[in-house]
């Protein structure tokens, strides 16, 4: 029994770990992540990699939308920048993947800064539309700048390689994607223990008050855009290495909406929420597929209904969470945790 | 330069723009009264167009019976959406409300696919087929008559908002909610009415647009063009919606004809980007002053 935790210093409030139990569970979680690829079959491994990529991208969007309060409908566009950067550099220069991934993140961040420029003048929905415009332009560039992007056919790339080792299978990709995801979530967690992260949150809560408090709005908003697109770029780069092909259709607008939905379903402005949301939203279609497969013997045309049902469930999840559980899965998780830490008391 | 061709393209574009203006009007009404950006407007259009397909094609009603029924269906849908999903979101952050409408859009796409399948469909013909000539310029009849019907509804709307009780209540609510409330205006009803009227305009436009270009579950993507229209015109300006609607429709068609179909979206979004930099609240939108 562990009833609440009284924090008596700022250090305690800022600490990543609030209790010994938490550390223990986290170590256990890491162990599971490590053992997972050796136990799982090909399908589960594939899903594991997808969830890892989604976690990185969702965390990035969470920094921008959840913590800084700037809505972005351009996440898929930034991921596309990352994907194409990786593809171009690995095709034309043969650089090893850590460098191409870094370049993907940096280039996406640069584009993010450019897209974020209007954010001082416009905000809220006008900004959302501005990011939407950016992703339309990016999509246009992907499709039309044929000498670099390969046009509608896209680019195919060689598997990632480092020190003579090639990362071809899902199994080996897992060991790139998942550690990177853990690392980047941790990095994000630390950002919010610093002055910069605090400034983001102040801007989200009320940007004018933040400005009066001496926060340089443009600078921090652009920083948030850069950081968020960096995450998107890395996620896009991993995406490119994972599927080993990038086309303009790999990063549709619906993907931006998917990540926004993942942030909301998980819990806006909560890193754990981003992780839960990314995993949940990635796995829902798979669960539905399993369900359809189980139903097919009884209802032969069940597969016909799968794709529309997926649309409906996707929409219903967004609407349902926003109306009934606005803080998302993270809040449900906290409630469960509270139950155990307060037990035998109820609240 | 072939002026005749340019004239024909421009005319077709302007007519399409008229329909954009109608949809944008539906958008602006909802925004003005309730401060909700309705990303589901394209899907409401789509739903009404499918209703028309069901009534006129499936049940073989006369198109002139089916059209009002479909539009009515679309407006009821708007009212129901407001009651069930938007009202509980009162007072939440704009991000959340927008995401709810995106969710609604996804639900509607799924429903339509479930009911009518994912394949593109053609609407039964109901507009006159004789080609229309203005001077020497040919204009496709579907577009011309669609524009006329749309324009008629637009004028009705403008008169309604100017002179009727409901229209005055709506404008009062838009300009100051609390004051309107204390003057005895039933604000909840106005919210609902705004959704009904907004969806009505969108539904009619939906049937007309689908009649010219065919219908599929991806039809709702037209909502994106309309978003550009309302942002350029100013989210809360009816006049802005009309002017920007006609302009964006024209620009899109001309860019499509001269540069190729893939330039339609970038051309309009380029205008949008310029407008956002020059006048962030749109050409005719209200500039809100924020205080702490």
Topology overview:
The complex is a heterodimer of chains A (347) and B (292).
Chain A: H1 10-14, H2 20-39, H3 42-67, H4 75-92, H5 97-116, H6 125-144, H7 146-149, E1 155-156, E2 160-162, E3 165-167, H8 170-191, H9 195-205, H10 207-212, H11 217-243, E4 245-246, H12 253-266, H13 271-295, H14 302-324, H15 328-342
Antiparallel strand pairs in A: 1-4, 2-3
Helix pairs in contact in A: 3-8, 3-9, 3-11, 3-12, 3-13, 4-5, 4-6, 4-11, 5-11, 8-11, 9-11, 12-13, 13-14, 13-15
Chain B: H1 3-34, H2 41-58, H3 63-86, H4 94-116, E1 132-134, E2 137-139, H5 141-163, H6 165-175, H7 177-182, H8 187-213, H9 222-233, H10 238-259, H11 264-278
Antiparallel strand pairs in B: 1-2
Helix pairs in contact in B: 1-5, 1-8, 1-9, 1-10, 2-3, 2-4, 2-8, 3-8, 5-6, 5-8, 6-8, 9-10, 9-11, 10-11
Question: What attributes characterize this protein structure?
Answer:
heterodimer, A: 347 residues, mainly alpha, two-stranded antiparallel sheet, 15 helices, 3% strand, globular, B: 292 residues, 11 helices, 2 strands, 2% strand, ABC_transp_permease (chain A), membrane (chain A)
User: SSE order of chain A in H/E notation?
Assistant: HHHHHHHEEEHHHHEHHHH
What's the count of strands of chain A? Answer: 4
Q: What's the Cα radius of gyration of chain A?
A: 21 Å
Strand order in space, largest sheet of chain B: 1-2
Strand content of chain B: under 5%
What is the percent of helical residues of chain A? over 70%
Low-confidence stretches of chain B: none
Shape of chain A: globular
Sketch the topology of chain B as an H/E string, one letter per element.
Answer: HHHHEEHHHHHHH
Number of domains of chain B: 1
Beta percentage of chain A is under 5%
Mean of all residue-level pLDDT scores of chain B: 86
Mind summarizing the main beta sheet of chain A?
2 strands, antiparallel
User: What are the segments of chain A in which pLDDT stays under 50 over at least 5 consecutive residues?
Assistant: none
């Amino acid at each position: 029994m562990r009833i609440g935790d009284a924090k008596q210093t700022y250090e305690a409030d800022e600490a990543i770990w609030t209790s010994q139990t938490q550390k223990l569970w986290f170590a256990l979680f890491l162990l599971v992540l490590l053992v997972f690829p050796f136990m799982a079959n090909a399908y589960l491994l594939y899903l594991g990699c997808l969830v890892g990529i989604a976690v990185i991208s969702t965390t990035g969007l969470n920094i921008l939308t959840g913590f800084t309060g700037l809505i972005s409908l351009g996440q898929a566009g930034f991921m596309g920048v990352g994907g194409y950067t990786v593809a171009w550099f690995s095709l034309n220069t043969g650089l090893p993947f850590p460098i191409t991934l870094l370049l993907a993140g940096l280039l996406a961040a640069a584009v993010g800064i450019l897209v974020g420029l209007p954010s001082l003048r416009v905000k809220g929905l006008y900004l959302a539309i501005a990011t939407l415009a950016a992703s339309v332009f990016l999509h246009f560039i992907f499709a039309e700048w044929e000498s670099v992007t390969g046009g509608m056919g896209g680019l195919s790339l060689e598997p990632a390689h480092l020190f003579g080792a090639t990362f071809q299978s899902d199994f080996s990709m897992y060991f790139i994607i998942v550690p990177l995801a853990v690392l980047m979530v941790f990095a994000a967690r630390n950002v919010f223990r610093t002055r910069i992260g605090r400034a983001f949150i102040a801007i989200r809560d009320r940007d004018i008050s933040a400005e009066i408090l001496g926060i340089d709005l443009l600078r921090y908003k652009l920083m948030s855009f850069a950081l968020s697109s960096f995450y998107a770029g890395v996620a896009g780069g991993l995406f490119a290495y994972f599927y080993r092909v990038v086309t303009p259709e790999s990063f549709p607008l619906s993907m931006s909406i998917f990540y926004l939905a993942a942030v909301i379903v998980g819990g806006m402005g909560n890193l754990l929420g981003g992780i839960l949301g990314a995993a949940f939203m990635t796995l829902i279609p798979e669960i539905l597929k399993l369900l359809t497969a189980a139903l097919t013997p009884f209802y032969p045309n069940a597969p016909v209904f799968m794709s529309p049902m997926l649309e409906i469930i996707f929409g219903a999840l967004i609407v349902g969470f926003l109306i009934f559980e606005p803080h998302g899965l993270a809040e449900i998780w906290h409630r469960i945790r509270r139950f155990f830490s307060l037990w035998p008391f109820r609240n | 330069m072939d002026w005749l061709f340019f004239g024909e393209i421009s005319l077709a574009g302007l007519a399409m723009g008229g329909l954009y203006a109608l949809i944008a009007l539906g958008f602006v009404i909802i925004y003005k009264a309730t401060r909700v950006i309705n990303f589901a407007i394209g899907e409401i259009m789509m739903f009404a167009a499918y209703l028309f397909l069901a009534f006129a094609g499936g049940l073989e009603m006369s198109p002139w019976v089916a059209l009002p029924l479909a539009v009515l269906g679309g407006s009821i849908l708007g009212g129901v959406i407001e009651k069930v999903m938007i009202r509980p979101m009162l007072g939440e952050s704009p991000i959340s409300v927008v995401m709810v409408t995106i969710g609604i859009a996804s639900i509607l796409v799924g429903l339509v696919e479930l009911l009518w399948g994912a394949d593109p469909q053609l609407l039964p013909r109901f507009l006159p087929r004789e080609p229309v000539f203005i001077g020497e310029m040919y204009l496709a009849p579907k577009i011309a008559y669609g524009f006329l019907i749309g324009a008629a509804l637009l004028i009705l709307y403008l008169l309604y908002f100017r002179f009727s009780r409901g229209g005055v209540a709506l404008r009062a609510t838009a300009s100051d909610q609390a004051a309107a409330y204390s003057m005895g205006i039933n604000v909840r009803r106005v919210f609902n009415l705004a959704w009904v009227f907004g969806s009505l305009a969108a539904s009619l436009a939906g049937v007309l647009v689908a009649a010219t270009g065919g219908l599929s579950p991806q039809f709702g993507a037209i909502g994106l063009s309309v978003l550009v229209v309302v942002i350029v015109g100013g989210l809360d300006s009816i006049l802005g919606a009309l002017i920007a609607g006609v302009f964006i429709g024209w620009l899109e068609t001309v860019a499509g004809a001269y540069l190729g179909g893939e330039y339609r979206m970038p051309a309009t979004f380029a205008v949008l980007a310029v407008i956002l930099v020059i006048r962030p609240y749109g050409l005719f939108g209200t500039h809100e002053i924020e205080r702490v």
